[in-house]
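Lab notebook: predicted structure, single chain.

Context: the supervisor wants predicted structures on file for every construct in the current expression panel, including those that have not yet been purified. This is the next one on the list. No modifications to the sequence; it matches the entry in the shared construct table.
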Amino acid sequence: MKIALETLGCKLNQAETETLARQFTQAGHELVARTEDADIYILNTCTVTHTADSKSRHLLRQARRRNPTVRIVVTGCYADRAPLDMAKLEAVDLVSGNEGKATLLARLEEKGYLRNADSSLPVNTKSTLRTRSFVKIQDGCRHYCAYCIVPYVRRIEKSTPPDEVIKQVKQRVTDGYQEVVLTGTRIGAYDSNGLQLKDLIERILSETDIPRLRLSSLQPQEISLELLELGRDNRLCPHFHLSLQSGSDSVLKRMRRRYTTGEYEKTVALIRATVPKVAVTTDTIVGFPCETDEEFRDSLDFCRRLNFARIHVFPFSPRSGTEAAQMPGQIPEKVKKERTRLMLALAEESLRHFREQFAGEELDVLWEKQTGQGVWSGVTGNYLRVYKKDSRDLSNELSPVKLD
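Prediction complete. Output recorded below exactly as produced.
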């Protein structure tokens, strides 16, 4: 049967969708890119913001319009947080939360939604996902930051055993992937019988031939000199995504974050002193409850001083059930919109400054896709987006390029 998969949200969701894709193709089914061509459409949802919720509902209704006969399955964090709301949508045939992802294929077979594959027919096993592969090494978070819904939808902290991670990375090498991204809800909390994230990375680098290894988001308190020194192996990408959320200590305290701006800044300094050509990227939330003009300016000034390579900006979105949703002093949407605009302008300025540092340098680029008229798009190890005109097929090729 023909399966269309779509993903919203974080790299962990992308990793879990990739696992689903492998399960379906190994069972003899075919992945398709268009909902119109599918027998089953599976949406892996996000619920971090109300915008993510809205986008999920839009995609589900759109899938039903485009293909009235398709079976629609919704999974992921929105399905976990509000399964009854999802089930009420006319477009949806089946709702399965995060814990149900591992057995989703079997459940679809039990319900009669999947026919047995005909092994005599050729199956298109080419993934419709991205060039790099996402490997889930950890799930769950118990930090309960005041604004965050994630601990409520990914409740149990667990780490994938290292031997299983090594096996998956080796399989990605066999499949021809040039880059693997280690991902999870909070990969810095990785702990498998005492083996920590640093130890896992060390094993991957020594026991596999993966050309490029990238880490997903970390907390500043999870960075150590020992972890950074693994970057002496140039296969470990010089890119650290370090969640900030606010550059104001008083806001961080209300958010229940576990660091101060001073501690964060020391961590960034350590990263830059240890890892050459490194990119430090971050997330910020603007308009958190009771955020004053002065606190916002502190956050803006902090981000300007730290010269991030990239800043992802989110206006505060109250999530029902979290502490912040009930806080007094909710910021008007008009104010959040203006603060978002100012932080996005700084993000663009910071990215431009970071790019300019590498003009004339030669860096390895992993080419991902053709953007039209013979122009290829790819990324460097430190996550610079690069474009090149070339008549050849560069997809999934890792090659040195002089940047201009």
